[in-house]
What does this fold into?
Amino acid sequence: MSDEKEVVIDVKNLSVGFVVRGKTTNVIRNISFPVYRGETLAIVGESGSGKSVTTKTFTGMLDANGFISGGQIIFSGLDLAKFKTNDDWLQIRGKRIATIFQDPMTSLNPLLTIGYQISEVLMLHHGLKKDEAKKEAIDLLKKVKIPNAEERYNDYPFQYSGGMRQRVVIAIALACRPEVLICDEPTTALDVTVQAQIIALIKELQEEYKWTTIFITHDLGVVANVADRIAVMYAGQIVEYGTVEDVFYHPEHPYTWALLCSLPQLGTKEEPLSYIVGNPPSFASEIIGDAFAPRNEYAMNIDFVMEPPIFKVSETHWAKTWLLSPMAPKVKKPKLIEELHQRMKIAAQELKRQEGDLDE
Amino acid sequence: MASYIIGYTVIAVIILFVVFSVLVKKRILFGETVAVQKIFGHPLLHYSIRRVGSSLVSIALAIIVTFFLIRLAYPADETCIQLFASQSSPTSSELFKLKCQNWKEQMGFNGSMIEQLINFFYNILPFPKTVCKTELETIEATGEYVTKVFDCRNFVINFGSVYKIPGIANGSFAIDYIGPRMMTSFKIGIIAVVLELALGYPFGIMMARYQNGIFDKIGKTYIMTIDAIPGVAYYYIWMAILCGLFALPKVFESGDFSSWLPLILTMGFTGMSGIGLWVRRYMVDEFNADYVKFARSKGLEEGRIMRIHILRNAVVPLVRTFPSAVIGALMGSYYLEKIYNVNGIGGALLVAINTKNASLLIAIIIISALLSVISYLLGDIVTAIVDPRISFTK
It folds into this structure.
């Protein structure tokens, strides 16, 4: 399956460091993964695992103290990791890779009209004249389902609600006509009801515009809905990578298990909601062995000494855990993981029932 | 006569305008006419009317308090003795009593305190009135005293007269003392304001643009130095540089522009540091704003981000200070005017206090109160114009 798919961004051995108070810490530690054209790749992981930092390297948007310390980011024949100046990035940013940020309340300039902020992009990237840009911008506002688009063109962001602002942000991304759209937790700051609408909108537009989406989230529930492939990140590394089916039905990494087990949607009323004990490791000291080992109930001695290599599970699926080593003892996955298929069915039915209630 | 007609017409127009606007706003008049509502019912206009109204009330209260305080501090009889008592006319003499009486009348010091207050308000309320100077004269033939009335002028606001100021004739109108001095201070001050804006903005922008670079470090050092050195000492340092090194005149001469330079440059370079500090601060804040990151991720070039998304937003909180900077130039600078011997308004308050000039003192207080009310109001209005988020509706 993956053989036929075209790779649009190929990340190879990427490492990112940050200089904090004179000390360099490695925040992304030697990660490699492909992003396939037209698909949605979800990067999941808890706060600080390096999800955002990874995608920031694709558009040269790392903070001033961050730098790429090694590896390659191959995008249509170019190595983005080699880009240095802003002029280099102007060929990529917006035009070819666009980003939607987490907080729509602050993503728009409060002093400029919505219309101006969309037209600005149209005039820049497509060389439209002012009135053409306005027409196009109104069309885009309609595309993202802003009611009375003509009248609201001249409104300011403060006159829009959070969900509406995120629609405008999406309209701006649309105006860029990018090949790759990075959605950095686009629904985290929104109401649950609005979240679903925004995700549906992104999916719908992706089908129409055929872009590739990289979807960053810490919510596995959202992922199941949107993603084709999933990369699970922990402490600056990708610990498991596979298609949605691979990761949801045959998760192999104990961290993925723990994430799935802590999904409230999959829990039953009888058992307490499980959570991951402890904290992610600090980047201040060097990480030895498997970064997840101290929090992992399946950790073996080797996990504390040696970093696990990548073990291929199938053509599309790999995980970075010693449990997959042929020498490792067979462990019994958590009960919930074993029953995952069934649980998901129940959860889906529950969701349907709730939606039914809402409709009535 | 003509000035009376103009005066009353202006006052009538203002009152009619305010009354009409209020009636339109309350929808008693033109409740349905959109165009009229749009202009005369504009929230900004009514905000201004309310603000001016309430400010006038507070100014009136302040005037009443100051009025009584000054009357208590400078008893009229004591000033009378200082002014008119001499060996030839002791306090018991007829001449002294007449002179004192005449002076009190002219200065509004006769009658009870309440009468004086009412009289005072009559004089400062802005409608035309004729005021004359009076002087006691002796008719040689009979030896009688008569009051000579001369130099009658039409005033809108009458601030009374001044006396005992060196170089100024007793009984001169206070406004004649204040007016020309204020103009002198303003001419210097307004050039200085233009200079400090012209220097301060690029200064702040450059510091922010190359944050933590060499220019930023030099700039920050300069700002800190100016903050740390007391004003007077700092002015003398500039005097040493400008008048010593560059041989500019040390004494202000309104006809000689080179003698303006030390004042203008000193004010300009001082003001520049404050403006630069705030421009830098607001811009650095904007650099980290999410919408700036988003603008960058849209693919906008840095120059455009700088102009449209950073500078514009950083300036919004600063436009508030434009009107007060310009209006502030009207009040002069005490130290600088003293150092360079400028006949400006900066020292007028001290002169009024030192010479116990009640009229001058209260005139300066009223003028500076009015100016600060106006500059705050204008500050609010320009902020509302540049910031769409501000609305004056409830």
